[in-house]
Amino acid sequence: MTEQERSEKLNNLIKDSIPLTNDVFMIFAINKEFCQEFLRVILEDDELEVIENDYQKVIPSAYNKKVMLDMLCRLKGGAIVNVEIQLVDEEYRAKRIFSYAAKIRVYDLKKGQDYKDASEIIIIYLTLKDIFQKGSTVYEVKMDVVSDQGEIVDKFDAGLRVLFVNTEGLTNETINDYLKILTDKTTINSKYKITSKIKEDLFVKGGAMMSKEMMEILDDVRDEAMEVGIEKGKQELMVKLYKDNMVSKEYASSELHISVDEFLRLVI
């Protein structure tokens, strides 16, 4: 692909796309302040604080399918939030969501840590369409313990919240107004300064310099981020397996193609 073709492709992306496409949303998710502003609105908590953010986060597995998460944040207080962007209808969404939650739990829970201290996990499944077609902006999964007589006898507290959020529903004015920034090509809202600033730079101002920046991000940074994420994830996995006495330091270092001393420095 020539430079001109790449530039035309990028310009078409900017004109025809919206921030909720996965590639473009990644540019927003890089910014920790955006993640905080986004989650404060969606979770309706003005005091919420993001202390770590990651995008296209790869969680590897030694035994089964690895996953790549669109946006992963840790909040002050320890809760972990995973935001998934889904633009097409998905038949087995529940299985994927609970698989992701399980991966995050295993990845986060440390050896010797009691289950009572496990972090709360919040999955936000963000869609354009109201997949339940009931007109609501937000749907939350509620898990109950039900007797064989049909009586709800307790809450099933798995330390997990699952929220389906969509841009079609009209029942939450605050979230509806905010999401317009991410779905309408020109909407800017001064109440949400971080999101609007990124949106304005990428979709409203445009220009050759910004197009070049966008092109570099979309064509280069995403691939690099995935490679770095996979490598970092593999390192973290080997350290965890070593600490759990499941692999030797010699095996772990050979898998990472580094010396034993270099591997032990990762363990510290």
Structure write-up:
By secondary structure, this protein is an alpha/beta fold. It has one domain. It has helices at 3-16, 22-29, 32-42, 93-108, 173-183, 193-205, 207-243, 249-256, 260-267, and strands spanning 50-59, 67-75, 80-86, 121-127, 138-140, 144-146, 152-155, 160-166. A 6-stranded mixed β-sheet has the order 1-2-3-4-8-5, with helices on both faces. A two-stranded antiparallel sheet has the order 6-7. β6 (144-146) and β7 form a beta hairpin. The longest helix has 37 residues, at 207-243.
Overall geometric form: globular
Rg from Cα: 21 Å
Determine the oligomeric state from the structure.
single chain
Percent range for β-strand residues: 15-25%
Low-confidence stretches: 207-211
* CA distance, first residue to last residue: 45 Å
Q: Order of strands in the sheet with the most strands? A: 1-2-3-4-8-5
Q: What's the number of extended β-strand segments?
A: 8
Overall residue-averaged pLDDT value: 81
Could you state the order of secondary-structure elements as H and E? HHHEEEHEEEEEHHHHH
Largest sheet: 6 strands, mixed
How many independent structural domains? 1
Helix and strand composition category: alpha/beta
How many helical elements?
9
Share of residues in helices = 40-55%
